[in-house]
Amino acid sequence: MPILKSFGRSLVQGARVVASQKSMSLYGVLSIASVYQIVTFHSFISNLIGYGYSLAFLSALFLTSIISMFLGAIFRQKIQKKVHLAWNLLGVLFASLIFFRLEGILGLIVYSVLGGVTAGLCIPDVICHLLEITNFENRGAVSGIYLFSIYLLIIISSTVISSAFDLALFLLVLKAISILLISFRPIKKADVEEPAFVRHPLRVPLLYMFVWFIFLLVDVIVSNMALQRLTPNEIYWINLESVTLGLSAMIIGGAIADNVGRRKLIIFAYLYLGIEYSFISLSSGDLIRYTFIDGVAWGLLSTLFLLVIWGDVGSIRARPLYTATALTIGVASIYFKNIIPLFGLRYDLNQAFPLTSIFLFLSVVITSFLLPETLPDKIIQSKELRDYIETAKKIREKYT
């Protein structure tokens, strides 16, 4: 089928782009994977600091990482190879100090500051570099492959990290490889917009941010509901199944986004979630075990809202701030997932799922009527024309 060939062609193009920049692509994968592990396994470090410091460390770590991301975004043009080397060396220092078990206020300050800077400072530059090696025709496929690689590494590493010392060893290995990769490759920044780039009014990226925020808000609410009804072991397997589904959605969704557009995929993902949560609500929560299937929507929306959209709507100078803001929303959602149980906040099932339905419906309305398609029409039309020509050739060959 021509459309399947088109998707396959997009994946091949995306793989070629990633392969052509394999050193920097691997550097980006390792950098972002290390960030995820720091914010996910924060409890191992807070246990080193001592009893009673969990909330303080969690808050300080997340705040420092967010501040670092915005500083990195604002001063992105000044971030060159030396800054990346220093950033990775800070990561080595942070991981090394875990072995020394700093306790009390000293541990709180040192681990939160070094961990936050390690998790934030150069990440906007890493993501913007990826966006600069893509264009409108291959950005979805490249982003899908990129995120697939990151989360595959995260899944593999998560199976072996069971203590603070495992985390430290993992970070040391990633940072050592990252230093080698960045030492022998110059970091080039684009200074010319791609020809197809169209400037959008500020309301467009802001509304896309709002739609992304709604998805993560719904995710926080549903995660809290799952904590009330499922055991930790069940939640672990649901998360693993969800991420596994999400990996496939990243690869496939990225290619689809390059052919049919970004907006249709966003609308599909929100409708998919709305239908799923409607069934869970009608079952009085009995089907909450099946929330792993929202991994499909998670994979699609993560690819679009962490990478693709900001490459489409952001100019070279605006992209760092857009990516930092999108990442901040993601980091904030992880933070609230962790602190809500600490305060014993609980949602009633009869309130939570109708509320999520309203949020998802609002997202569909905003995306359908207030947001433009960010993939230029001429690119969509050219791919449709190419598919049409291929179909016509096959029909002619069949009857001649």
From TrEMBL:
Keywords: Membrane, Transmembrane, Transmembrane helix. Signal peptide: none annotated. InterPro entries: MFS_trans_sf. The chain crosses the membrane at residues 26-45, 51-73, 85-102, 108-131, 143-161, 167-184, 205-223, 235-253, 265-282, 288-309, 321-340, 352-371. SUPFAM superfamilies: MFS general substrate transporter. The keyword Transmembrane applies. The keyword Membrane applies. This is MFS transporter. It comes from Methanosuratincola subterraneus.
